[in-house]
Amino acid sequence: MAVPTDPSIEEEEEEHEHDGPTHHPSAPSHEFFDLSTTVDPSYIISLIRKLLPLDSASVNGVVSVDINRESVTDSKEEDAPSVSKSKSENMDVDVSCESSHARGECQDTGDGIEHSGVSVCEDVWEECGCVLWDLAASKTHAELMVENLILEVLLANLIVCKSVRVTEIIIGIIGNLACHEVPMKHIVSTKGLIEIIVEKLFMEDPQCLCETCRLLTVGLQSGESIKWAEALQSEQILCQILWIAENTLNLQLLEKCVGLILAILESQQNVLDDLLPCMMKLGLASILINLLTFEISKLKNDRIPERYSILDLILRAIEGLSVIDEHSQEICSNKELFHLVCDLVKFPDKVEVGNCCVTAAVLIANILSDVADCASEISQDWRLLGGLLDIFPFASDDLEARNAVWNVLARILVRIHETEMNPSSLCHFVSVLVRRIDLIEDELLNQQCVDSSPGSTTDARNTSLMRITSIVNQWTTVKEDPENNGNAEVLVSETDLKKLLDCCHKFSK
């Protein structure tokens, strides 16, 4: 949203008033922040003044904020792309509660915001707040806001406000401010602010909960993560986070809540030590597995793109838990989980859920590292073998994931006893390999471009190639037997068969 220097903004045509979304997305990533426009700092300050609750001087000792608008000079500022939309795209922010109050149109309802019969003052507050929500995405604007006490103003509003929409806007503004280092330091140093934000986890409004989870996630990913973790460490709060994840039907809220759990799991060790033991005691592992079960069942029955990102976050959270020594066994020993991720790898249409399948393959590798016997269970599943090979293109930029796939392949292939297999089963395995010769060759070429590779990964890749060669050679012997001639259930191209053998010999070390 481009904000003019004049605080008065032209109204759009009436038919566009309802085009905007009913909630506000996260701050855009930093690469968008270099779009410049002219924003008068005094305009930003005038918006902050309009957010002052009438009784802010007496609310729990919060002192009335005295903002000297005349002390700020005009300057050019960076402006981020629009993050939020209020009820109309352009807003008349020149309307003030003071003028309405002078006309006798506003009454104080006790929630810190004056109201008229049509909530004139709350509408003005919302409009001004939405502009600040947008502007807070810019580092320059965000720093100007905290210098001019926007956090004190927002805290005063949080204390007295009963409007869920106003609460959403307040937390949204703070969420965008928190994306910048200097404003984040102001947030954590504002006494009582983090605590009152955490309390909003007990609201029932999905949009408020979404913004609260987003803000907490940003906090845990920042350099101030310890202070945010301290505010979350009570069992009641952690139980509420898990309850939301387990029970909400709102897809956006589920995504934000699982994202918050993932942020905890990916935090520094001090945060994990503070939060994870209690979360595990409250059933984190089983909740994540239950969520995964539901999402995979939805994936098999309904193609809902909005759910794909949720599935990915759940898988990443489980994968993160699988590498934490104190808790990995609870994940890796779960048979239901193992079958779920194997089913996902075998999912035929990977274009839509490629990233999810990559994470599933890494999770399988982690499980097999802890519970080696599981490899025997899947060694005869040629569909799983094909699914693993199909993952390579989706992991082309992720060396760790590609190495994980090779490790899983090696563990499976060494357990295939081709000399003991019946011709039909052997034919299926060879067909799976031959049909993916191009994927195998491209992956080997990509791997060759990597300057160095861990020894265990090189061993896994070489083991896989040698085992593929042995399986293909056994098939060549079997199909030449007159008793088996013409009995193959699947046609195998002789040209591709030779190409596969040549590829294996070329890249074996």
Largest sheet descriptor: 2 strands, antiparallel
Q: Overall 3D geometry?
A: elongated
In whole angstroms, how far apart are the ends? 58 Å
Estimate the helix proportion, in percent.
Answer: 55-70%
* Largest sheet: spatial strand order: 1-2
What proportion of the residues form beta strands (DSSP E)? Answer: under 5%
Q: What letter string, H or E per element, gives the SSE order?
A: EHEHEEHHHHHHHHHHHHHHHHHHHHHHH
Mean pLDDT: 81
Number of beta-strand segments: 4
Low-confidence sequence ranges: 1-36, 56-119
- Helix and strand content put the structural class at mainly alpha
Subcellular location: Nucleus
Keywords: Nucleus
Region (Disordered): 1-33, 71-92
InterPro entries: ARM-like (IPR011989), ARM-type_fold (IPR016024), Synovial_Prolif_Regulator (IPR052464)
Secondary structure blueprint with pairings:
Blueprint: E1 36-37, H1 41-50, E2 77-78, H2 97-102, E3 107-108, E4 114-115, H3 120-135, H4 139-147, H5 150-160, H6 164-177, H7 181-189, H8 193-199, H9 206-220, H10 225-232, H11 235-247, H12 251-265, H13 269-281, H14 284-301, H15 308-322, H16 328-332, H17 335-345, H18 354-370, H19 374-378, H20 382-391, H21 399-413, H22 423-435, H23 437-448, H24 455-479, H25 494-507
Antiparallel strand pairs: 1-2, 3-4
Organism: Trifolium subterraneum (Subterranean clover)
InterPro entries: ARM-like, ARM-type_fold, Synovial_Prolif_Regulator
Protein name: Protein saal1
